[in-house]
Amino acid sequence: MDSFLNRTVRLAFGFAMLTLLLMGAVSDRWMDISDESGRWARQTNEVLTNIQNLLLAIENVESSSREFVLTGRESDLDLYHTNVLNVERDQEAIGKLTADNPIQQSRMPALKSLADENIRDTEAIISLRRTEGLAAAVASIQSRRYRQTADQMQALVGKMQDEELRLRTLRRAETDRDQGRTRVVLIVGTLLGMLISGVAGWYALRDSARRSEAERHLVEKVKELNRSNEELVRLSHAAQKMTQHITHSAEHDALTGLPNRLLLNDRVGQAVAFAERHQNQVAVLSLDLDGFKHINNSLGHPIGDRLLQSVARRLVDCVRATDTVSREGGDEFAVLLSEIKQPEDAATKSGRLLQAVARACSIDQHDLHITASIGISIYPDDGLDAETLIRNADTALNQAKEDGRQGYQFFRPAMNRLAVERQSIEEHLRRALERQELALHYQPIISLRTGTIAAVEALIRWTHPIRGSVSPAQFIPVAEDCGLILPIGAWVLREACMQARAWADAGLPKMTMAVNVSAMQFEQESFLDDLFTVLGETGLDPGSLELELTERALMKRADLAASILSTLRGKGIRVAVDDFGTGYSSLSYLRKFPLDALKIDQSFVSQITTIPDETVIITAIISMSRSLNLQVIAEGVETEDQLDFLKAHQCDEAQGYYFSRPVPPQEFVRLLEARSWLPDSGCDSDPFSLD
Fold first, then answer.
1. Which of 192, 231, 363, 435 sits in a 20 to 30 Å window from 62, CA-based?
2. pLDDT level of residue 688 (50, 70, 90 thresholds)
3. Do the bridges between strand 574-580 and strand 545-550 make them parallel or antiparallel, or are there none, so unpaired?
4. Are residues 264 and 253 in contact, defined by beta-carbon separation less than 8 angstroms?
5. CA gap 630, 594 in Å, rounded
6. Are 637 and 600 in contact (CB under 8 A)?
7. What is the mean pLDDT of the chain?
8. How confident is the model at residue 223 (pLDDT cuts 50, 70, 90)?
9. What pLDDT score does 30 carry?
10. SS3 for 599?
């Protein structure tokens, strides 16, 4: 019996030692897996970071080459050559990082080919500019080939990530199988060891003091096995979380947690494939916040970031779980409606999104109000792939913003033609000042009491050497969007003041020179200093100048505007609200601001004899202005009936084609020779003829 018990004890002890050795081997294997996962995560992150640097360097190559295209100066190519060297440097860094990764290394020739192709295209544009001139180079740039190459590179990066994800999935599956088998062996070994040791110990140590010691030792061994098993599980979970974090960071916006452009492209592609099989439609909405830049600059980036996070939550709350809300960067978002029955569904959803964004947002005791504009493209009518749908939604967004903001606009093919036209106007407008293609024409403003010219408005005109006369309605919005309105506005102010002083020196009748000031000019910190400098240099009496501002320009920063207007009034400069009735039109701001006159927008005047409601509006404006001691000036008077109505309702002044079109300065002098501008004044000659 003792011999049997001894053999049993030795067998149990040997089995337990075998189990512990197996446990140690498994622990070493999991430590190796954890180290390998960590190295893979770090290496993948470095590769993706360097590829993004490469994409940025390629974009800089394109941007720096366009400066040479616009100017033709060889010195402007210095920055371009520096950016080309940066592309080569980033390619070399990526090659070193991927040397030990066959999957990533297999993608390097394609990545290098795309980068080299982009540089070759840029060199071709530069050569084209040198040999065939600006127009040919611009036409080639407008082919958007740069963007296609950048998108191809983004697609290549996506393929690399997909292959890494597939490999990681296979490794995880193999690891899970190994872990399962190991757990079975450990559990069975532990149970058998406990059973054999327990039976042998019971027989060998029964009624012995050593029994309790053996039991305690056995329990400690079992606990040690359990702790080792739990540590293996913990390491496995940590490696899995690290991998998930890297994947999530590559596909999501860090600030809002929303999908980024890369993930949006993938989901749009999936939605298009699903819609094609099931004969459904897909909508892509491009959304841009109106006025966010002002909030961000005035209140600080932390509040701006929290506002973006609030907007992101509101957008997500408005869509279904199957839809996608993405942040494109800055204050731009995109929404994928993965399945709609008709375009009207996208319009309805856009209305809800606009309402959600427009709700007041309270951040750090600031009640912030912001609006949005939305552009919509529909699959399959507006594109058959993600790239085209997103690009066309962006184009529609630009149109929505031009149409007045806080609205939505569906994409139309004509918008692409308009976008090309707009870019062409911007490029030519940048040279218009230095080429002296801009000029001022002057339109008289007639006193309806005396029939004489009370003031004159300076209006800008652009005569392009090829296009001919370009309408202000075409180029002024472009100038405002790209910032050219600042130098153009400064030129207009100086030119108008110089002309007014010249007329005064020539002994012509005293009159007020009215000059339009854009909202962007008015917002400049140096606005007052620049204005007073112009008055000082031209010698114009401040009392002879009237600045015309829109309601939007005044209300954008109301407190600051009130202070500026007080300073202007203190110097004797008159201030008029231009296009009154098309903006805020609020009595509260009229009382708050020191103003001299209101100009009734021509859209109301043109409807005087056809739409009764318009006459009510004009009558109300005139009555309100009189109660506030403001002059009323009617714009766009074209008929005698309109003039009779305005005179009957005691409008102070009027201007329009009925009196005269805007004319060059030399012709305006001839207009001043007319004794009266009213048809019942007894004038001997026709004052409306320039012959």
1. 435
2. very low
3. parallel
4. no
5. 10
6. no
7. 80
8. confident
9. 46
10. strand
